[in-house]
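re: ur question from earlier - yeah i can do the single chain one, its not a big deal. heres the input i used so u can compare w yours
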Amino acid sequence: MNLVSLRVITHDVAHLVDFYERVTGVRADWSTEDFAELRTASGTLAIGSTRTVPLFAPGSARPADNRSVIIEFLVDDVDAVHRNLAGLVTEFVKEPTTMPWGNRALLFRDPDGNLVNLFTPVTPAAIGKFAGSAR
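and the output i got, formated as tokens:
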């Protein structure tokens, strides 16, 4: 089994895709006006419209209702990215902080309220864990 993607359901696909394109620098691939994907070397962030939910099961997903999942991206320099996000991100939850497990992390909310963590490994153990990972 291989984790391929994480899908976020939203009322406004274009707005959320624009936000993530600006945060990540990755251009989305659009399948329809209701579905786009931002592909990285290690995984895909899929963004789907509420109109796609009934295709799975009516009422099975609700936009802007997540309070348990954190979308995470590995970046080269979290402090530099933080400076570049000024004016785009409206809610920073935690400024860049070095976590006990060795990553320097920045936590904020996307326009739908989903938590996003950008991080850079800074200790030898964390750097070793992510050696060779695409950024």
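The radius of gyration is 15 Å. not sure if urs matches, ping me
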